[in-house]
Design goal:
The chain is α/β, with parallel strands linked by helices. The protein has a single domain, classed as Alpha-Beta Barrel (TIM Barrel), CATH 3.20.20. Helices cover 34% and strands 14% of the residues. The protein contains 5 helices and 5 strands, in the order H-E-H-H-E-H-E-H-E-E. Strand 2, helix 4 and strand 3 form a beta-alpha-beta unit. Helix 2 packs across helix 3 and helix 3 packs parallel to helix 4. The radius of gyration is 19 Å and the shape is globular. The relative contact order is 0.13. Pfam families: QRPTase_C (PF01729).
Amino acid sequence: EKYGMLVGGVDTHRMDLSSMIMLKDNHIWSQGSITRAVQRARAVGGFSLKVEVECQSELDATEAIEAGADIVMLDNMKGNVLSEAAANLKKKWSGTRKFLVEASGGITEDNITEYFHPDVDILSMGSLSQGVPHVDFSLKIKKAL
């Protein structure tokens, strides 16, 4: 499904675990803080792998950016909360840090326009590739008479 999206022109989140370091809640909890998780990820991944941090709040995202994250995923934020957080982060770090803001969680084809905002760089939609029905087809070879 993911390869099909890539062939269709969609920029996939990552093709496999070696494409980027994504720090989710379990990784952060195991390290004690976002800062420590980003530092450990950088030590393992070096300069060549981007580090993305799943953030539950603007405060989490600020810590991730301070620690050197390349992408902050604002997870399950909607409407004004998302817009304000993205705008505040871009304004705060303008000219000093380069990072991308990603919105994720509950985004579908039906509600995607609610997530459009000039300060949101990436919209993640798992619904595009999860649960796509498979085509059942077969090829029958008949013996020539």
